[in-house]
Amino acid sequence: MEYIRTAIPEVVLIKPKVFGDHRGFFMETFRQSEFEKYCGPAQFVQDNHSGSGQGILRGLHYQLKNTQGKLVRVVAGQVFDVAVDIRQGSPTFGKWVGEFLSSENKHQLWVPEGFAHAFYVISEWAEFVYKTTDYYAPEWERSLLWNDPMIGIEWPLVNGTLPKLSDKDAKAPILTEAEIFPFGWTKENKERV
Questions:
Q1: Which listed residue (3, 22, 61, 107) is catalytic?
Q2: Would you tell me how many other CB atoms lie within 10 Å of the CB of residue 48?
Q3: Which CATH number is 66's domain given?
Q4: Per the confidence metrics, is the pTM higher than 0.85?
Q5: How high is the pLDDT of residue 192?
């Protein structure tokens, strides 16, 4: 696999080597030793799989405690996947990176702890799978507003139509009003929240 640091170096795009012939294809999607070499130590404890129709936007989500690093990929369709740095004091605080992930390109994105995450469905249908480094904890889940002008994410909206959101995501606060990771927070020092 090829590991490519994005404009926010902690967020890593992973391109697998795909071997194919008349029978189909084979690829390795995860190898612990390589992942730790290029992305840092991580222990995954939960796998998730969601399906969504075109125009649905899920996020921007994060957990204040039980923080989750996410290794994400798409197994059907195409999405635009986004990570936003919400670690106060970080040199990239409030910045975002986005990547197109699809069943065709088979790319993955590593979104570490300390980031808000979202994806927007471009294809008619998409299935999104991801590993997490901690368990889902609804009492600690938070959201940021998808179109916060301070963050300025350039969503590739299909036909310029506004995305379909959950009620929770539609009412999410902007970055300046949200609960985020305090100055000095690190994934090794999670209790500082």
A1: 61
A2: 13
A3: 2.60.120.10
A4: yes
A5: 47
